[in-house]
Amino acid sequence: MASNNTEVTLPLPISTSAAVGIAILTLAFVLGFPGNLFVVWSVLCRVKKRSVTCLLVLNLAVADALVLLSAPLFLRFLAGGRGWEFGSVACKLVHYLSSVNMYVSIYLICLMSMDRWLAVTRPFLSQRLRTKRTLLAILFGVWVLAFLLSLPMPFYRRNLEIPLSKTISIKVCKVHHNSKGDRIFQYVFETVMACIVPFSLINTCYSSVICRLQSAKFQRRAQGSRLILMIICAFTIFWLPYHIVNIIEVAGLLQASNSVISAAIKARPNVTAFAYFSSAINPVLYVFAGSSHIRQAGLSFMGKLLEATYSESRTTSTFTRSGRSSSSPDESSVLHTLSVKLGRPFKSKDKERSSSVAGREVDEPELKTLATVEQLE
């Protein structure tokens, strides 16, 4: 045993798990950091009419770019073989920023879902809320909430000294809990506030939207809706394993099962690196979503994609507000003919009457009858 201790030298050789982590972090940084900066540039310099979705995408890109700045530190830690060389403050700060990114991302996605829900189910309220002042206040609230929810993270990270031999030791930035209760609290809190609560809200909003659009037979293709669904699916794929490991470790702690706890501890570094990659995937999704614009617009394709969400949000609210989601060309011509016959635009009671007329043929006698009744009123 003593002979093995004397053979320890620095830097340490790179393990298989460290090599996998290096590959993931390098790919995340190479794709994600310039990709998110490109999104920020596109929104600020190429988009003239910014929708709510556009501004939420901007904030999401800023959050992802900030957390990816920590990638070089983790790469040095994994590849250097000398432990964590950046001190206790950096150890706490990079994990705090990662936690902020997790909360900002999921609650921005919640706002995207709620905006879509309001546009479809409460169009008048949606238009009143879509002001610059209201949106900035909500975005400020999301960032403040994310910073507050992440406060426990620095308390559970320590730059601990790990002895390798009698003469050699390294410092490692790792999770450290003072008690079993602290450990359970952290993982339950993260899973509830960053998974269960926001995804319940997202599922509720989109279930309501789907039911409303199906009942209205709203068949219009929506780029913004597809983009939001892609972001939601990507976030779920990359973060769900992390929260599953949280649940497994909490279950092991409550049952005092060392084998379950050990399995969760072994899986945690891999699922954490996988979740970290979520900050790099959104720019890739935007390329796929805006592929139809790339040939025509070139580097301005992102601006075209996000400008489409502006026109779409206005059209969705207009269609929903007027109750004409399923309008056909024949129905539109009928309503136009009625307005000409009556000699003035339809009011609220005319809309009720037109909805009963829509969907069936209207002959000339019926038009005359409706005009006569309207004149008598």
From TrEMBL:
Pfam families (alphabetical): 7tm_1
TM region positions: 20-44, 56-75, 95-114, 135-156, 184-206, 227-245
Molecular-function GO terms, alphabetical: complement receptor activity; leukotriene receptor activity
One GO term describing the cellular component: plasma membrane
Compositional bias segments (type: Basic and acidic residues): 347-367
Domain of life: Eukaryota
Key word Cytoplasm present: no
Keyword terms, alphabetized: Cell membrane, G-protein coupled receptor, Glycoprotein, Membrane, Phosphoprotein, Receptor, Transducer, Transmembrane, Transmembrane helix
Residues of the G-protein coupled receptors family 1 profile domain: 35-286
Subcellular locations according to the entry: Cell membrane
Keyword Coiled coil attributed: no
Alphabetical GO biological process terms: inflammatory response; phospholipase C-activating G protein-coupled receptor signaling pathway; positive regulation of cytosolic calcium ion concentration
Sequence similarity: Belongs to the G-protein coupled receptor 1 family.
Name under which the protein is recorded: Leukotriene B4 receptor 1
Organism in which the protein naturally occurs: Xyrichtys novacula (Pearly razorfish)
